[in-house]
């Protein structure tokens, strides 16, 4: 592809920013990114909040290796390094955890126990003292079993996205925000194959390009209906507690703490003193807003969490920091990801679209923020190679992401089963 050929990237979230960055780094000079939200990082990006876990343990060594690559970049790329904090990662199950949670934990421990990158970095958690050794400020009962991994931590996610955005701007990438893409434009070539040539926005603007990359996250099916149910929008809850400066100071440097059956939290944000908490579970789908048999897509209103998730967060706090367990939860919202049936990403050309004109980079399955430094490179490589050689990242025709996912506990709840009073702003 010519370096000055126009490239269109649709969606300026985690995948989109990294994709723009890597194409620009590779010397492409006419890149435009279209984003529905009015600013970058976008309000609707799953990556746009205070912090995300950065860890390399995976059931599957393929992703463990990618995560190690990404972590190396988090530590050494001057653009991102200021936002990576290696506080360690405490992963455990509470006494009440179901067997599935215990099995998943053992698998993820298995993936790193023998790996040279983690030598001397892993210690078992068998009793309360093993926890208070690494997090002396935790004063709850914590009858947990698991392990502590020193070679992991978190990234300040919104700040990292902002850094990538600035780098893109400096490399000449153009951003057009506040105007959602409504549909793609296709043209029929002489051999009657369909080629994607651009996109039209809600306000009626037309953008043309030789290569179009869809990085729409959970909203992919709204612009590319033929993706069908191979991706399903799936959401998790996020909530915060406002700490005083003194309270935040006490929690400075705590590890990312994750009870698989309850949820996780991070060191308080250094700027706002907000403590971010996420309950675990299979999350929420929104199949009800599309037609029968259609995909799950994100709803418009997301500033809520369910009472069941609020209860899980409070149980997590009673176990670890009981003094905070009854505090008000604020900035509550659902965060939407694009799940696939097997949690594999999709980085591929859209079939039956000619001249390699349309790429999908999605299917993050809730585990892709850590890949921010490298995820965009995969579309650059795909465009260069002309074919996806990595089988697991191919288009997943006929797959249905509405089913059970091996490493999640329980089944997602569809929003139709959440009372309207909870999921509206009344
Ligand atoms: C609660 C929660 C916790 C998580 N924790 C972690 C973690 O600890 N570690 C980790 O690695 N990952 C984590 N993730 C997952 C991570 O956030 C996602 O994998 C990643 O952000 C997905 O990136 P994306 O670019 O595919 O989607 P997004 O970042 O959501 O980007 C999609 C973009 O497309 C835009 N868009 C949508 N429709 C249109 C349209 N029609 N036109 C133009 N633009 C449009 C959206 O506004 C958005 O900006 C978590 C996710 C959630 C929900
Ligand atoms: C096909 O794509 C190449 C770049 O990959 C471009 O140079 C060429 O013009 C495209 N062909 C058509 C018919 O658009
Ligand atoms: C970039 O591509 C667009 C779409 O084809 C075109 O209108 C514009 O002139 C190009 N800009 C440059 C600097 O080449």
From TrEMBL:
<dbReference type="InterPro" id="IPR036188">
    <property type="entry name" value="FAD/NAD-bd_sf"/>
</dbReference>
<dbReference type="InterPro" id="IPR045170">
    <property type="entry name" value="MTOX"/>
</dbReference>
<dbReference type="InterPro" id="IPR006076">
    <property type="entry name" value="FAD-dep_OxRdtase"/>
</dbReference>
<keyword id="KW-0560">Oxidoreductase</keyword>
<protein>
    <submittedName>
        <fullName>Sarcosine oxidase</fullName>
    </submittedName>
</protein>
<comment type="similarity">
    <text>Belongs to the MSOX/MTOX family.</text>
</comment>
<keyword id="KW-0285">Flavoprotein</keyword>
<feature type="domain" description="FAD dependent oxidoreductase">
    <location>
        <begin position="7"/>
        <end position="382"/>
    </location>
</feature>
<keyword id="KW-0274">FAD</keyword>
<dbReference type="Pfam" id="PF01266">
    <property type="entry name" value="DAO"/>
</dbReference>
């Amino acid at each position: 592809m010519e370096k000055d050929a126009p490239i269109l990237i649709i969606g300026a979230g985690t995948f989109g920013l990294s994709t723009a960055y890597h194409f620009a780094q590779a010397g492409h000079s006419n890149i435009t990114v279209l984003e529905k939200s009015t600013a970058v990082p976008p309000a609707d990006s799953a990556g746009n909040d205070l912090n995300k876990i950065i860890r390399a343990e995976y059931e599957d060594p393929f992703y463990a290796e990618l995560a190690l690559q990404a972590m190396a970049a988090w530590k050494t790329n001057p653009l991102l390094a200021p936002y990576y904090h290696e506080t360690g990662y405490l992963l455990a199950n509470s006494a009440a955890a179901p067997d599935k949670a215990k099995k998943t934990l053992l698998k993820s421990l298995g993936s790193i126990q023998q790996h040279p990158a983690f030598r001397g970095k892993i210690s078992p958690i068998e009793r309360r003292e093993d926890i208070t050794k690494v997090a002396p400020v935790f004063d709850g009962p914590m009858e947990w079993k698991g392990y502590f991994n020193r070679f992991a931590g978190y990234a300040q996610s919104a700040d990292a996205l902002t850094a990538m955005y600035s780098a893109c701007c400096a490399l000449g990438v153009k951003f057009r925000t506040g105007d959602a893409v409504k549909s793609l434009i296709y043209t029929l070539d002489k051999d009657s194959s369909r080629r994607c040539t651009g996109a039209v926005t809600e306000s009626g603007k037309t953008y043309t390009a030789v290569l179009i990359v869809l990085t729409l996250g959970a909203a992919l099916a709204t612009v590319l209906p033929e993706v069908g149910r191979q991706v399903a929008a799936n959401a998790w809850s996020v909530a915060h507690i406002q700490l005083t400066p003194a309270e935040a100071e006490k929690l400075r440097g705590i590890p990312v703490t994750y009870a698989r059956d309850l949820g996780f939290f991070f060191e308080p944000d250094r700027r706002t003193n907000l403590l971010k908490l996420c309950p675990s579970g299979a999350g929420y789908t929104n199949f009800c807003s599309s037609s029968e048999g259609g995909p799950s897509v994100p709803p418009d209103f997301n500033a809520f969490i369910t009472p069941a998730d609020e209860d899980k967060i409070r149980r997590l706090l009673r176990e670890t920091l009981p003094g905070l367990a009854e505090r008000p939860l604020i900035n509550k919202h659902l965060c939407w990801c694009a799940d696939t049936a097997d949690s594999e990403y999709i980085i591929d050309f859209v079939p039956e679209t000619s001249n390699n004109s349309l790429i999908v980079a999605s299917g993050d399955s809730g585990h892709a923020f850590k890949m921010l430094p490298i995820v965009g490179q995969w579309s650059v490589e795909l465009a260069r190679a002309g074919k996806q050689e990595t089988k697991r990242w191919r288009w997943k025709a006929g797959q249905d992401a509405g089913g059970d996912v091996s490493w999640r506990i329980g089944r997602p709840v569809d929003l139709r089963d959440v009372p309207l009073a909870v999921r509206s702003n009344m």
